[in-house]
């Protein structure tokens, strides 16, 4: 079991036995995992992984879950071949590792994926969700990319974009009350800046008693009482996407 005092404990409760229902594809220079619903749709969601990369079973589970809700869902490798973080790695080296993986340097890959979704999958309305590092990337895209319709940032690392709040698209921010990586003071400051500067619809929601990574890990394996909040977080995410896509 992971130690929750680690810098970024997304690995707790991995669904290591989950293989995924989709397939891996090559999208120009980017590998990606994609899953499509049985019925045709023009709605798609880009899933941005956390530090544990695009192959993490937890993230593929959520990608498939989006598909069961009627969306084309794609999780590209935004590290573009660089190694994902491993729970067995030395956390003392984490900051140096992170310097080579900037959540604001994904625009080229996003453009490639948007083109693929539009030309190869028939997608016309595209949103984005992301976890932790990926949540910060969602924040970046909501500030910059005009082609996305909406975003859900799940425990996105606020410090990466703490001074930026002029969002282009409706954005839902999910945070955990007991997150040891993102303080409630940071969340409060983000809310204040959004209130002052944001011209589009946004929502910031804090889930009681939860810790970092709760929505996309099998948290009920550790604390069954948290299952309600996992399900609520996932439902809220889907409802937001349904509203704006």
Give a description of the structure.
Belongs to the dienelactone hydrolase family. Its main location: cytoplasm. This is Carboxymethylenebutenolidase homolog. GO terms for molecular function: hydrolase activity. The N terminus is likely disordered. The protein is globular, with a radius of gyration of 17 Å. Helix 4 links the parallel strand 5 and strand 6. It is 31% helix and 19% strand. It has 245 residues and is α/β, with parallel strands linked by helices. Strands 1-2-4-3-5-6-7-8 form an 8-stranded mixed sheet, sandwiched between helices. It has a single domain, classed as Alpha/Beta hydrolase fold, catalytic domain (Rossmann fold, 3-Layer(aba) Sandwich), CATH 3.40.50.
List keywords for this structure.
245 residues; alpha/beta; Rossmann fold; 8-stranded mixed sheet; 6 helices; 8 strands; 31% helix
């Amino acid at each position: 079991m992971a130690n929750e005092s680690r810098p970024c404990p997304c690995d707790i409760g991995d669904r290591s036995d989950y293989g995924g229902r989709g397939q891996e594809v090559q999208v120009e220079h980017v590998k990606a995992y994609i899953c499509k619903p049985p019925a045709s749709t023009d709605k798609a969601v880009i899933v941005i992984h956390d530090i544990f990369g695009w192959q993490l079973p937890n993230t593929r589970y959520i990608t498939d879950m989006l598909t069961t809700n009627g969306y084309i869902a794609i999780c590209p490798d935004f590290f573009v071949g660089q190694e994902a973080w491993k729970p067995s790695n030395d956390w003392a080296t984490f900051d140096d590792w992170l310097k080579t993986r900037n959540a604001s340097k994904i625009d080229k890959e996003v453009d490639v994926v948007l083109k693929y979704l539009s030309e190869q999958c028939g997608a016309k309305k595209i949103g984005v969700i992301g976890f932790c590092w990926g949540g910060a990337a969602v924040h970046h895209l909501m500030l910059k990319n005009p082609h996305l319709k909406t975003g859900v940032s799940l425990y996105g690392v606020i410090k990466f974009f703490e001074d930026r709040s002029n969002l282009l698209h409706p954005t839902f921010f999910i945070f955990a009350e007991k997150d040891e990586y993102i303080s409630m003071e940071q969340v409060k400051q983000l809310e204040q800046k959004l209130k002052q500067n944001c011209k589009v619809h946004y929502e910031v929601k804090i889930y009681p008693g939860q810790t970092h990574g709760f929505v996309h890990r099998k948290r009920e394996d550790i604390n069954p009482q948290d299952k309600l909040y996992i399900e609520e977080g996932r439902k809220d995410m889907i409802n937001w996407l349904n509203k704006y896509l």
